[in-house]
Amino acid sequence: MADYRSLGLTLGRHPVELLRRKLEKLGVVRAVDLWEIENGKKVRVAGLVTHRQRPETASGVVFISLEDETGICNLIVWVAVQEQQREAIFGSRLMVVEGELQSESGVVHVVTHKARDYSRWLGSLAIASRDFH
Questions:
Q1: Which of 27, 57, 73, 85 could serve as a FRET partner for 66 with CA atoms 20 to 30 Å apart?
Q2: Domain extents for the chain?
Q3: Which pLDDT tens digits describe the chain residue by residue (133 residues)?
Q4: Taking the model in full, what pTM does it have?
Q5: Residue 93: helix, strand or coil by DSSP?
Q6: Strand 71-77 relative to strand 62-68: parallel, antiparallel, unpaired?
């Protein structure tokens, strides 16, 4: 945690790895495991929010990257979901998401249905995402 506080990274255990047991109780799968799940299935993922992007060409859609101890999970967040869950979508440092897995042509992402802010599980750990919106 000290490494993350001062550098924003660590050579030790990833902060999400330290929370893995709690996340498993919530039914959260790891980013690496998404590759083995069938297209269209409902999934629950979690991670540190590393990026939020809302390109002008995307009609208001937000793309979010979550990082866990195994890699990155990319989220698609439609405008209606943003409006309903604005605080979690734009304010979370640690986010748990329920959605639909989409896997096509070697690209995997989760279309967000519900997002919850679990930043409290990080305590005082300061994690800053890179936001482009």
A1: 57
A2: 2-132
A3: 555 555 555 556 778 888 899 999 999 999 999 999 999 999 999 999 999 998 888 899 999 999 999 999 999 999 999 999 999 999 999 999 999 999 988 899 999 999 999 998 887 666 666 656 5
A4: 0.84
A5: coil
A6: antiparallel
Q: Hey, what CATH topology would domain 2-132 get?
A: OB fold (Dihydrolipoamide Acetyltransferase, E2P) (2.40.50)
**Interacting residues of 81 by C-beta distance below 8 A, sequence separation 6+:** 89, 112, 113, 115
Say if strands 130-132 and 42-53 run parallel, antiparallel, or are unpaired.
parallel
Q: Which amino acid is at 3?
A: D
Do the Cβ atoms of 118 and 94 come closer than 8 Å? yes
Q: How far apart are CA 114 and CA 44, in angstroms?
A: 9
